[in-house]
Amino acid sequence: MAPVRAGFCPLLLLLLGLWVAMISVSAKPGHVTDAGWFKTQHVQNKRRSCKAAMENINKHTKHCKDRNTFLQTTFSKVAATCRTPSIACKDGQKNCHKSRGAVSMTLCEVTSGKYPNCKYKENHLKKRYIVACNPPQKGDSKKFKLVPVHLDNIL
To answer: Domain 31-154, what architecture?
Structure first.
């Protein structure tokens, strides 16, 4: 039984190392609420270039994020989407909400480069979106009963 355990342990350590590396690359900064991170990643009051907008995200993760969508609207308007009827999210949870109308958005996709010199192509769209919403966390505005925490889909 010892040889099986000896072969299993390095694999377990490798998987644990990959998991820790993945968490550090994709995790939000510790001092930011889920809604605050959503706002950083997905809300722009006015359009900015993908290069400028993505620098603000990539500086936290220290890598070039492959793909990101920015909604050209206010956080309050996205939070109002949380008051529409609940629907199932892609992961099966029932805390998603569909926007009432289309909004302008920018889709940024990495083309080349290595952090911090990430290069992006951008595509401007006008579409509806689906967001996952949760109750506010400590540090969020109490102005909303639900706040957006994840951009689940664009339609």
So the answer is: Roll (3.10)
